[in-house]
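Worked example 3 (structure in, sequence out).
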């Protein structure tokens, strides 16, 4: 890596929801413009943007470093007795390799499932159990060590730093320096180097990036008000300084001119971090067929049984029915989605046997006769002239969509059945994100800036619905 460069190791993208304002493509364009060899993503308590970040960085020729600004509970992460202010400290974690990435995933998962109290939290015991392959930075002013320094408890700061060093190892723990012109940071930066020397750990420079350019500060401030439910003119509200932008290597070297080793260590960490994530190949569990049968033969057997149930005598006399069914089965076999269909049939069949209400099916799956005769959908595609090719065709690479609705009250029974049969690690639930689209963002911005609802709504209604208009940021 070029020795005169710099690597940002503490950075919040738009996946630090309503707190970070950095979009991936723009970030990578700027990193490439600055000739930065690598850049990290460290969103608040989550890895939502990790895959998009990795893909965009790889396309731009910038090494992606996947990390997270974790929330560390002062005691057990399962203890929910503290107030919001005392609930957690901030701590920066970076995955150095695939093992570290897997451990980071485990930590973030446990934080959301077991440790959520105002924020998704882990604790030091959990970190110790999953520390292999991770690099830790001591964090911002909200970190445990900096909090102790601000309270003039230097012994507590040193003790906390020693605990993190012992958990991660001296070579994997760094004292994180920030300098946005704030007196609290200057106070910490006078103490952190001495603690680092005493404990045999090193310094690293960071900028806690929340937006791409200094000129984005005002827009980011408005977004922060939307996220916190405050008005721009409120005196007593959270505010960020303009320095939290994606600074160039030259700017970072100037800010930390008294700590050149802290700059060099960002490059070393960038060199040490390397992850190869695999994309493009679907990994499905194999459906366990009865003894003496193959998956292909079993799917055909189920389909022909279903054909007789759905169509009665036509199942043997109507050549078009049999031709359509055989064609679909051939395509499923050719594209490798036999197990996929069997698994979907399996959990829908389970739900119906247990009396759990199941929807009739939605989307392109309604065009599949295989789905209809298996009972996955309840709409006859021939009767309504629905096309199988919208669901799947020989040239399609991505898996077909099958939208299934289960009774909300008993959906958990279906999920548990799938977990028990196919394995805990083969079942996951996905997330959806709401976006501030043109009309809604006009209303939100108008509200936090003090416009009346009528005026903001009048402006929003000037934006056409049918053109999918976006607003420049």
């Amino acid at each position: 890596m070029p020795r005169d460069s710099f690597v940002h190791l503490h950075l919040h993208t738009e996946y630090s929801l309503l707190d970070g304002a950095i979009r991936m493509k723009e970030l990578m364009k700027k990193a490439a413009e600055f000739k930065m060899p690598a850049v990290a993503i460290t969103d608040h308590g989550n890895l939502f943007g990790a895959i998009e970040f990795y893909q965009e960085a790889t396309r731009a020729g910038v090494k992606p470093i996947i990390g997270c600004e974790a929330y560390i509970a002062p005691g057990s992460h399962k203890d929910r007795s503290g107030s919001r202010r005392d609930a957690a400290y901030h701590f920066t974690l970076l995955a150095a390799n695939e093992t570290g990435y897997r451990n980071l995933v485990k930590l973030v998962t446990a934080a959301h499932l077991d440790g959520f109290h105002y924020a998704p939290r882990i604790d030091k015991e959990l970190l110790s159990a999953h520390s292999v392959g991770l690099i830790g930075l001591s964090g911002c002013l909200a970190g445990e060590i900096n909090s102790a320094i601000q309270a003039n408890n230097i012994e507590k700061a040193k003790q906390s730093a020693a605990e993190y060093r012992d958990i991660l190892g001296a070579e994997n723990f760094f004292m994180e320096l920030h300098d946005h012109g704030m007196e609290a940071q200057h106070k910490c930066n006078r103490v952190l180097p001495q603690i680092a020397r005493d404990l045999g750990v090193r310094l690293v420079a960071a900028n806690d990036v929340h937006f791409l350019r200094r000129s984005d500060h005002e827009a980011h401030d408005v977004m922060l008000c939307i996220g916190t439910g405050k008005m721009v003119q409120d005196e007593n509200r959270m505010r960020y300084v303009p320095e939290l932008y994606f600074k160039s290597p030259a700017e970072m070297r100037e800010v930390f001119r008294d700590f050149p080793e802290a700059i060099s260590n960002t490059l070393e960490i960038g060199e040490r971090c390397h992850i190869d994530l695999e994309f493009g190949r679907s990994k499905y569990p194999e459906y366990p067929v009865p003894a003496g049968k193959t998956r292909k033969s079993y799917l055909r057997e189920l389909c022909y049984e279903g054909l007789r149930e759905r169509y009665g005598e036509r199942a043997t006399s109507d050549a078009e029915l049999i031709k359509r069914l055989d064609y679909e089965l051939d395509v499923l076999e050719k594209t490798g989605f036999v197990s996929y269909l069997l698994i979907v049939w399996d959990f829908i069949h389970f739900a119906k046997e247990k009396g759990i209400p199941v929807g009739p099916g939605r989307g392109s799956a309604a065009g599949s006769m295989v789905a209809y005769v298996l009972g996955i959908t309840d709409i006859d595609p021939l009767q309504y002239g629905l096309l199988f090719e919208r669901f799947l065709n020989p040239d399609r690479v991505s898996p077909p969509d099958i939208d299934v609705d289960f009774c909300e009250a008993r959906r958990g029974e279906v999920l548990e059945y799938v977990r028990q049969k196919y394995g805990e690690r083969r079942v996951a639930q996905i997330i959806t994100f709401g976006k501030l689209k043109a009309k809604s963002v006009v209303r939100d911005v108008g509200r936090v800036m003090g416009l009346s609802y009528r005026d903001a709504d009048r402006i929003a209604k000037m934006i056409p619905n049918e053109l999918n208009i976006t607003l420049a940021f």
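Notes: Residues 435-473 form a domain with the Arc Repressor Mutant, subunit A fold (CATH 1.10.10.1600). Residues 183-199 form the longest helix (17 residues).
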